[in-house]
Amino acid sequence: MQKLPIGIQSFVKLRNDDCLYVDKTEVIHRLITSGTTFFLSRPRRFGKSLLVSTMEEIFKGKKSLFRGLWIEDNWDWTTTCPVIRLDFGGMALHTPEALVRSLKASLKEIAQANEIVLETEDVAHQFRELIHKLHQSKKQQVVVLIDEYDKPIIDNLTDLEKADKIRAILHAFYQVMKAADEHLRFVFLTGVSKFSKVSIFSGLNNLIDITLEAQFAAICGYTQAELESCFDPYIAELAQKHECSKQEAIEKIKYWYDGYSWDGETFVYNSFSTLMFFRQQVFKDHWFATGSPTFIVNILKEHNDIQALLEPIPMQAERFDSFDIQTINPRILMFQTGYLTIKKIQKNAFGELRYILGLPNEEVNRALTAHLFAAHAAIDVADVDTTRSDMMEQLLDGDPKSFERNLQAMFARIPNQLWGKDEKYYHSMLLLWLNMLNFKVDAEVNTDKGRIDAVWTWNERVVIAEIKYAAANNDDNDGNKARPVSTNALLNTALKQIRKRRYYERYAGENKRIALLGVAFAGKEIACRMEELS
Known about the structure:
A hairpin with a 2-residue loop joins strand 12 and strand 13. The chain has 534 residues and is an alpha/beta fold. 41% of the residues lie in helices and 16% in strands. Strands 2-3-4-1-5 form a 5-stranded parallel sheet. It has a 5-stranded mixed sheet with strand order 9-10-11-12-13, with helices on both faces. The protein has 20 helices and 13 strands. Helix 15 packs across helix 19.
């Protein structure tokens, strides 16, 4: 079993240390022979830096590193190119001045390695000078590889004035490459987001965005075939440890970590999560835990966009290029940062593309919903986890009183100023919570007799729920305070509605135990009642 390359972003180190490498050189060859200037967006920790490092060694002609890989016999190793590789992930980005200093230091280091003296002072001028002098001294066009081009802006999105100053610096810097076209052999930029309306790429009008191109859909991440062939010894070890078949092990790994797609057809595993899982052999949120989801969670909370986690999201193709630092679309942000992915692509009667977005896998679903609920309830994520398993068992076993107590305790934690003023708030919060209990949640299910508020399924168990809400005091038509509606009356109404409209018929005959669940919110009074369908 080869060593797992966890945290290794250097292709040289990976190969010299005999780590496992999923061969991506054929698709890399397809890219670097198909044009000059490209951009690729992928979420963090998805293998972008290793991809850039691999390209660097190809252009430098390091054939020995590619022994046994596809490209070994499919590349002219006698011709090498000078490479300028810039990694914003390793730079100081906290101020515009720090960014300029870091850029200058990186350019100076590359110049010294190639025995070149930079005579200009402005950072953009230094970049231009380095490109020209490298081409002149090496007699070969220059390759420019820029990793995490957008990190200086992403890291400063909470300070829009600072972010805009950084944007201006990057605009001038990247614009150098347009004027230096005759000196460039290949240009490749990676990042998380493709900004619009901020003029970062206006100087690179020949830039080809391959993010959504089907032929490069698997350039990062692992396909199902790659997982089963390259990680076969690890899968066998896992199956033995858990006393299950290899196929059962594969299906569970797929459920947790597969599901990312940028063309709606090719699906890949999150590479970091997969590597960490095979190392620890524990199903949990490996990738999610390494980042700081606070910014994403706060954006979703601000837009009250809980439904984005529960239902497919249709989006027009042109929306993917509309990431603007002044007006952030939460769903575009979720897609670009890896919390949503393309599940399928549809065409309308006019041939226009429509992308259907959804959560990629169980890792993202479980972690993101827990963090989002904690943010809404102003509690710690650890507190969310403490009652998760208890409430799941209560729903499965038909224990409404215990479930009701936990539900009341859960909502009691929410500060007074955060309580919603309408049914939608309570409906969304309950759906979010039950989604965290590992149930398959279907919200607002349509039947021939009406619309069910929610259905939760787990193996042989089906719970059909109707949620009713009333304000603490209902005004009558004359504006007078009416008598408060009791939770008991709301529960009677909810369960009567389920039986009258026979929502359960949709699930009859599936050999499942069906329970009817009414949940009532009367102001801040909470109650629920569960009845087994006899």
